[in-house]
Every structure is written in structure tokens, then in C-alpha cells.
Amino acid sequence: MPPSTARQTLDGSAPLAQERVLSTLNRDGSRRWIHPRPMPGRFMTARRSVAWALIAIFAVLPYIRVGGRPLVLLDLPARRFTILGKTLLPTDALLLALGFVAVVVTIFLLTALLGRVWCGWACPQTVYLEFLFRPIERLFDGSPGRRRRGIQGTAVAKLLKHIAFVVVACFVAHTFLAYFVGVETLARWVRQSPFEHPAAFLVMAATTGLMLFDFVFFREQTCIVACPYGRFQSVMLDRHSLIIGYDERRGEPRGRLRRAPGAADDANAIALPQAPRTAGDCIDCGMCVTCCPTGIDIRRGLQMECIGCAQCIDACDAVMTRIARPKGLIRYGSQAAMEGEAPRRLRPRVVLYPTVLAAILTVFATVLAQTGGFDLTVLRGLGATFVEVDSATIGNQARIKIVNRTEGEGRYLIEVAGLESAAVHAEENPAVLAAGESRTVGVLIVAPRAALATGHRRVTIEVSDGAGLRRERPFVLQGPHGSGTR
Fold this sequence. Notes:
- The chain is of the alpha+beta class.
- It is built from 14 helices and 18 strands.
- The chain is elongated, with a radius of gyration of 33 Å.
- The protein starts with 5 loop residues before the first strand and ends in an 8-residue tail after the last strand.
- About 20% of the residues are buried.
């Protein structure tokens, strides 16, 4: 380890770090506030387009309906999740588990292929912080490296900035709440007094407060300290995964450029040297550090704090253009490619993850195709296994649980197949269920004693909704052994 980075303890046992442990901490342990300088470029333009598209989708999604149902509604009190117009109930635990595992495997696959593309391009933390809250801050406080204009930086501007923060946080919190209660309920609550729905108001207020704490105070520390994804990347990446890296072979040794005589007094103006350059292409201007939203130096190699936002690429490319050097000193690539190795696109994890994901999605689609209309569960009745209705008839009790998944009233006819002489006796048949209702119907299935001579008989309980959908469940009728000899 270089002498500047560590020193020995008095007993000579372990080195003590002298440089910054976290990019958001100063050496004395105080908070280092990061105000990244926005760098225009091709990646910033692309990320801004993606970010605003995601914000628009987030704001519009609760208002979209499919077949009369919200596109997305996560009704936790009723334990009903509506996703893509499809309603999932607590009985759909397998679907929810498969969906969760599919998301995890997809993250593993994307990370193995594209590195932390999620963090830098699509994570809500990055999208809202870098393209909503920080632009508002720069509007009232001024941009780093530029002169303030008008009332920027004054007490009035700071007050207006925090008012804007609260308004934006309230809007995001209300939109977030719409995913759980629906836009109709949310609109009604907004027009009512908070005392008429105190629980929902407290949830909205707490969500707004958490967003203000996150985006106004905690900021990039969420990515560095709180989010575990940066720590997971060490096991999800390999040497051929796509990352943002500094080409050390081309950039080193670093050397600063001197301003040519007569150059304009502009901090951004960099003049070409008069003599041929013998150092590497990196002129140690520090622009890649100035623009980094987590405050790291990408030239130190792959770091946990790097979110893959590509701001340093735009900054470095602009500098390379001004000094007439090729772009790409900092670029997207792999660790292996940066070291001159041939790229390997086909790797074990790149084959394994898609295979596992395809299997999970196949099972998910199969289970989802069987879900809809209504759910049917058949259980044996409580109490005696069977009853003797009369000398010639045996009865078996059954509990038929029906869940109406539709948005309208359903009528469900219960029948028995596999034994023509069997009949279903119930207080209500067909059973009428309201939209979304779940009910357990008790029935008595009666059959001739002669049909149960062996002590049991396999039959099928069929339930139909009158609209062409029919579900079947096996059932075993029980009776006294040898009952056919009576």
C-alpha cells in the first residue's frame, strides 16, 4: 500500500487508513456534501429521456384500466393485487413467489451483462434525485462552477426551493398511495378533511416526510450506505461484465496541460501544449470527480459507490474533444477489455441465468393461464366420514370453496360426475357470489348404497359459471364396506 494511504499503529500491527473511507465523509468524520456538476453529453441526454419517461409512466399508470380494472392496484387491506388487469389473491402465493424469483434472476442477469445499469438509469432513487430534486436545487441555488443569477442563493430562493421540494414530494407520495388505494379513493380523500381518513393521511404524510428526508438530506448516501445492491455486485459481476472504467494503459502517467499564452480567462478553456505530449491522455483535470453524483474517482478502478450513471464519460469525452484526443478514456467496457483481453460474451452465468429465468416464466405463464374466472377448492366436510340417509342411500358432506375473481356477480352450479345416480343437495345451488366474494358452500352428496359396495367410489365435483368456464376437482365418496350386500 502506498505510504500516502496508510500508516502503521504504534505497535506496528494494523495499518490505519488516512484517506477517505466513504466518498460522503471527510477525514474528521463530518458529512461531505456532494453537489455534482451536470455534464451535458450523449449519455446525459439519453438518461434524461429515460428518466422522464419513467416518471411519466409512474404518474399515469394508476389511471389506466384494463377490462374495467386498474392496470396496477395493490390493495393490501383486502389482500388483492391487480397486476396488468389480472387480480391475484392470497391463494396465488405460488404466482407471487414465482414473480419475485423471476425479478431477482432478471436482476442477476442484467448485472452480469450490463453491470449496474439499473442503478444509473432506472432506479427511482437516481431518477428522482438526479432529474427532479437536484435540478430544482440548481434552479434556486445555482449550478456548481457557474455564477449565480438573480435571487439564486438568497434566503428567499432557499425558502422557495424547500416549498418546491415539499410540493414535489407530496405529488410523488400521493401518486405512490394511488397504487394501493386506487385513484378514485385517493381523489375522494383529497377533497375530504384529513380527520375523515386519519390513517391514510398519516401514511401519506409519513411517505412525504421519508421522501423529503431521502432526496433532500440523505441523498447519495442511500446508494452508498443503505442500499445493499452495491455490495451484491461483487458476486454478480465478473471480469467480462459491462462496467464504466478508466483506461489506465492509455491515461497514465497523468500530466496537466498549461494554458497557452493569450488564452481566455475561462475555467473551461484548455489549450493544447506547444510541444508533443509525453504523458498519458489524462490531464488530471478532475472533471470526472466533479460531476460524479456519489463523489468517487473512477480512475481508482471499480468501486462499490459507482452507480454506472456515465456522467464521468460525458465529462471526459468533452475534455478529450477540447484537447484533440480520442474519446473513450473513460468508457463502457469490461475489466478484461480494459486490460487488453479478448471479450467473452458467452459465459456460464450468462447461459445459466436465462435458462433459469425461462423455466420460471414458463411455470408462471402456465399457472397464470389456469387462473381466472373463479377459484375452486373442495374439502371433505367436518364430522362423520359419511352418514346413512336411509337404508338405501349414503351421504358424504363436502365443503366447496368458490372465489369469484370477476368484477360482476357470478352464479356457480355444483354437480357430480362419474356416478349418474349421485346427486348434490345444497341450500343454494347455483351459489350466487358478488364480485370478488369468497364463500364456502356446504353440500351433501348422496349416492345409492349399492354404488359404494367396496367402501369408496371416486367421483368428480364440477362447478360451472354459466359462461363456459368449468372447473373439476376429484372427490372420494365413502360408505360402509360391503354395503351392496344388504
